[in-house]
Amino acid sequence: MRRTTTSTRVGIRRIAAVAGVFAAAAIGQAAGAAGPRPAAADGDPLKLGLLLTSEGPFANNSETAQAGAEYAVEKLNAEGGVNGQPIELVTADSHGAPDQLATIMPRLATEDDVLAIVGPVESSSCDVACPLALQFEVPLVSPGAARPGVLEPGRPYSFSLAQPDGPNATPALINIVETHDIQTAAIIYDEANATTVAQADLFRGVFEATGVEIVDEVTYTSGDSSFAAQVTQIASSEPDAIALAAGSADGGRIAVEVDAQGLETQLLGTGSLQSDIHGYIEAAGDAANGTLTAAQYNPRATDPVAAELLAEAQEYLGVDEVPLNFAYAHDAVYIIAGIIGDGGLTGSSDTLAADRVAIQEGLNALDDFVGMADGTTFGDDGFSLRPVLVAEIVDGVVEITEVDGGGGEDSAATADSASADSAAAPATTG
Questions:
Q1: Cα 246 off chain centre by
Q2: Distance in angstroms (rounded) separating the CA atoms of residues 419 and 402
Q3: CATH assignment of the domain containing 336
């Protein structure tokens, strides 16, 4: 990950550096702290769209992202907004039906006059929203869409804070396979769900590259209450590892069944599972211990700016770890706000089109913005470049280690297989 000590091309590292001050102010107000409070922003609002998905398999992810975006706006507005103008979130909910975005996106662009959009969290919704971002020339930053190529129809107006599982998870999983001497594996996935199918493809690519024999593949239906039959079938092949091509809830129930049947096998996950790792732990309980996944976000970042922001958010939320999509949505708002502030953009009807172009150009020029998610640089494909991390669940706690490989090339250029969405843990706002 590239590190810089000077101002970036759009000068927004400064925004990240002072974000801790914003957070402290917001936390103090939330706790009823005494002392002077900054004057409220009283100019015309700077409107940002926020795409939500309140139903379906990514509802928890969306709730997390919403909380992160709202937290960022609260901090910014507590300090007078951006150049005296408050940020206003204009929310729009697809209710888990991506086709609804065909109506929502034009409304945000032409009626609500938003400067930019945060969301959606998942690739299936970005399939609809991202091309429309290009059509209406409204910058869109997703906190989680991560299927390779999903941004391409919306470039150069579509971005994601996430990195596809292909370039991110492949080297991490190869490291896991080699380190733990895995020789045989089974894959479990929902063949009707594009996300889990992509995860299964990723696992197949990793196992082929490392010489791991796939001894069984079984399918399920997302939301199944019992995985007894699938695990019983897998048990008969005695694999060294079971690859969980699943969301957190399904993956957790699979882990419980594996534990109940007494299988001594290594559970594996992609970065999608890690990014909703707390939901997985909640669903699996003690059965989650020992699970190894690829990861792309470290809630215990060592960068001083990131660490301070994370600590303040932990206090604000009352949690031990800040969820991935909370951090990504928070950073998306701050990145956009920084570009608006440095460019003196006003979002007025006279300058709206030009302001949107300026934000798009600023996002494409972004170089090592440091926020909660540590350093963010967008590659030429619009995806963020991330380090390669391995997560292990030990006694209910996620331990993350950085391993060699990845993080320095465009994700599109390094992806060798299909991949899955980067999901997020449920928002925990008390």
A1: 16
A2: 20
A3: 3.40.50.2300
The predicted-structure confidence for 301-359, as pLDDT tens digits, reads as follows: 889 999 999 999 999 999 888 988 999 999 999 999 999 999 999 999 999 999 999 99
Residues 22 and 154 in one domain: yes
Q: Quick one: how many helices (H) and strands (E) in the chain?
A: 15, 14
Q: Rounded to an integer, what distance in angstroms lies between the CA atom of residue 245 and that of residue 219?
A: 10
Report the C-alpha gap between 368 and 152 in whole angstroms: 22
Q: How many of the other CB atoms lie within 10 Å of CB of 395?
A: 8
- Kind of pairing between the strands at 87-93 and 46-52: parallel
Summarised one tens digit per residue, pLDDT across range 240-265 is: 999 999 988 999 999 999 999 999 99
- Separation between Cα atoms, residue 32 and residue 26, nearest integer Å: 10
Element (H, E) at 142: strand 140-142
> pTM of this prediction?
0.77
Note whether residue 134 is domain-resident: yes
The region, left, alpha or beta by phi > 0 then psi within -120 to 50, assigned to residue 285 is left
Rg (CA), the chain: 21
If asked whether residues 309 and 288 sit together in one domain, one would say no
Q: Which of 380, 383, 414, 334 is nearest to 142 (CA)?
A: 383
Token readout for 46 is 């700077």
